[in-house]
Amino acid sequence: MKAAIANSLWLAGCLPDYARFQHAARNVRAEQESILRRILAANAGTEFGRSHGFASIRDLAEYPRRVPLRDYDELRPWIDRIAAGASNVLTREPVRLFEPTGGSAGGSKWIPYTASLQREFQRGIRAWMADLFLHDPALLDGRAYWSVSPAGAPGGRTSGGVPIGFEDDTHYVGGWQRRLARAVMAVPAEVRLIPDMDEFRYATLLHLCRARDLKLISVWNPAFLSLLMERLTEWRDRLAHDLPGRAAELRSGEPLWPSLRLISCWTDANAAGPAAALAAMFPRARIQGKGLIATEGFVSFPLAGYQHCALAVRSHFLEFLPEGSEIPLMAHELDAGQRYRVVMTTGGGLYRYKLGDIVEVTGFVESCPLVRFLGRSGYISDWFGEKLNEAHVSRVMQDCFTGLGMTPRFAMLACEPETPAAYVLYIDTPGPDEVVERAAARIDEGLRENFHYSYARHLGQLEAVRVFRADAASEAYFGAGVQGGRRAGDIKPRALDCGSGWRRVFEGDPARGRISSRLV
Known about the structure:
38% of the residues lie in helices and 20% in strands. The chain contains 17 helices and 20 strands.
């Protein structure tokens, strides 16, 4: 009853933003123009706004002429000044906190959060939640597990006194609705602060097992939930001892969450295989692909009845760079079947920020584009001049696995530069060796679409793609990231890694993995 009341009130609070999104979906250009004008007017008097002439920008065509495209490193001098205590730098509003996130090359980024940026996130979250509840009302009378902020998230303050990191997951919801969200959470937010990963997982499972009425699970990486469920099998007796009321179900293997209806997680690009494995693990629940939600901004969210996600056209001002072009298009100018790099301008002070994500437009809801995530642009592996891009590698791998009917639990390509140098397909799949080696051959052939990779192969600088079969690869990958100081929420399924030495990570002991000795 408590969950039903809290969820119903939460739905009521989300309905206005859902209605506004539906209106915006029919008027994409006007909505986007309104957002940009609001951001420019609010921040015209800041250091950044004055230096780029925000006050004199009269039309949308003038904005890209005044403000160049930038990535995080190009914005870092302004962000560093805010961290040191300066105000009115990127935004008129004070920066409430910095939310850390990992960069593609492994470096840490601090994203400034203002009240305006938080409201922009909330517009997308509320439209999504309203659509979810309206199309599946049975979700209203149960609890939910939300994993947003990772275990061991860093805290503290910058040298200028700005807090680092949200206190708990419900800050993304904000306002009075935050209290409602906390009321229906199956796992208390404090659990995420447990530093030991095994203890964090056990505490999470303990709370989840108490929540027999669990209806919804929302995680980022599908492998995160799979690893959690593997621990459930290992710790059944311990959990049964600590939860005598559910001991019989735990020991018998009966479904612990008979009413679980929906699991929200990444399903695109290199998350497709782990998401499929999760679907097999929870056959009664529906898997809903997450939208493109980055620490920097809220780009898209799922809608019932559509395979892919709608652009969050009420959140930020969005621009899109077609493949091979630096000439931006606005959201109302996109074409189905085309691929674009995402650029965003937000109320948090990111102006024409190159997010680094590539999306493909798959259709429209009204005039609002539907998109799917393809991979990261600008993430390049280049040991011998091969210049492999993650987005290309991801497409090649997905085409290969689809063609062979494979759904690997884990698959990643990385270079082993020692002689004989080659890219290695690290894979966890039940398929036979000959199928996996056929996959490696197809991937190598697909990579040769890239002239630079093909030339490195022609010169003998790189041999053909080889195979390394690794058991429990997702856990090893996840553990290596945490031990390396990365936040759990930043550890994403990746088709390509620019580093080397992964064989040592996945091998563990000699029986754990093996590398193909013959070229394929």
